[in-house]
Amino acid sequence: MGTHALDRDLTELAASARAALVREIDASGAWVGDPVWREAFEAVPRHLFVPYYYVGVVGGYERRWGESPDPRTREKWLRGAYADAPLATRLRDGELVSSSSQPSLMAMMLAALRVRDGDRVLEIGAGTGYNAALLAHRLGDDRVTTVDLEPEITEAARRHLAAAGHHPAVVTGDGARGAPERAPFDRIIATCTLSSVPVAWLAQCRPGGRILSPLATGLIALTVRDAGHAEGRFLHTPAYFVPLRGEGRHEEGFIEWDGVPRRARESDLFRFLLTLTRDTLEPRVAYELWEREGRPRRERYGITVSGEREWAWLDDPEGPYAWPLR
Q: Which end of the chain is more exposed for a tag (fewer CB within 10 A), N or C?
């Protein structure tokens, strides 16, 4: 069986599984802000972008492969490809370096990107190419650029995209530097976690453009004023992605939990604040602030970029609670 040639029964299963995934995303309300994305998810076959992936099992990972000689294994692979779940697609020494994100989260992010017909979009983190295909279906191949640091990832993304009938620009390079040769862009979306927003992105984004990126276990949506200024708030949803590799990578250190109760340690919202203020506040001080301010949700936080300065804040960019990011 060729890489993308399915048995007749599996072809029918792929169509029904994709339809079921679309219904599930629809029920989640992920694209309620821009329901046009439903058409893209209906049209783009996710299984073409994950010819194999890994699932966690006791003692490590199990590889699921679309070319397995066992029909039952191929069916399991295909059903997994259309689950509303992230899929580990590339491992290195046991560390996850690339994945296909949860489709409903992808749909929510694409809706939050607020693209318009004719927009030019830069994606940071090519992954499997699936997100770029969704963007290309909506906007056209010539309007989409995706970049990744690893040549083997971009080569695989090109193959997957071509199999699905799409040919956006796929660039091998450091995502923190963007893709200046393809600029300017109206929208920039990252599918990897940042520790701060690269200045290069602002310079490559048109005034009034929008940058959407994972940061500190959340999603920040910035409006670009000019090449040196941008500001925006976090969306409500949590988001966990593979870290950006290259110049923008940040290594997390050991956390001292002294003075922090267990309920806070286990709180997603507290850990968000702790990650956001990792180089500024000790966990005990962060906990005291978190309790004093009523355990704030993500939407109360934001980020401002102004020249060489970048800071996170609670409620007000010029308020009493602000923490430098670089």
A: N
> 201 is written with which tokens?
């992105």
Is 98 catalytic? The answer is yes
Beta strands per DSSP E along the chain? 52-57, 60-65, 87-92, 95-100, 121-124, 144-148, 169-172, 185-190, 205-215, 218-226, 229-234, 301-306, 309-314, 322-324
> Which residue is associated with the tokens 């191949």?
141
Residue 195 CA, distance from chain mean position: 14
Q: Which of 16, 28, 98, 306 is catalytic?
A: 98
| 38-49 average pLDDT score | 97
Q: Is pLDDT of 30 > 50?
A: yes
Quick one: pLDDT at residue 86?
92
Residue with tokens 């830069």: 122
- Evaluate the omega torsion of the peptide bond into residue 86 and state whether it is cis, within 30 degrees of 0: no
Under 8 Å between Cβ of 126 and 189: no
Residues paired with 42 in a beta bridge: none
Count CB-CB contacts under 10 A for residue 230.
25
Q: Work out the burial of residue 61: count CB atoms within 10 Å of its CB; fewer than 13 is exposed, 13-18 middle, 19 or more buried.
A: middle
Instruction: Encode pLDDT of 215-252 as tens digits.
Output: 999 999 999 999 999 999 999 999 988 888 655 555 55
